Amino acid sequence: MDLRIGIQNSPRELAFETSQTAAEVEQAVAAALSGQAPVLRLTDAKGTVYVVPAAALAYVEIGTEEARRIGFVG
Questions:
Q1: Structure pTM?
Q2: What domain of life does the UniProt record list for this protein's source (predicted)?
Q3: Which long-range CB contacts under 8 A does 39-45 form with residues at least 24 apart?
């Protein structure tokens, strides 16, 4: 699934693919925004860990869990 995370006062966004489900990502974001966790911690498909302070989150865009198609569309 594709994720895009906007960070306050930063002109760039974090964009990466993760193997986590949409429900897992949504739960982590909700915990960070409610104050249960001081940071949003997510792992991409290659194992890289991203840690963003909860206070700096501007938005989190959760993409679809659909697998990419390979080949020609007929």
A1: 0.80
A2: Bacteria
A3: 40/5, 42/3, 42/5, 42/18, 43/18, 43/19, 44/16, 44/17, 44/18, 45/16, 45/17, 45/18, 45/19
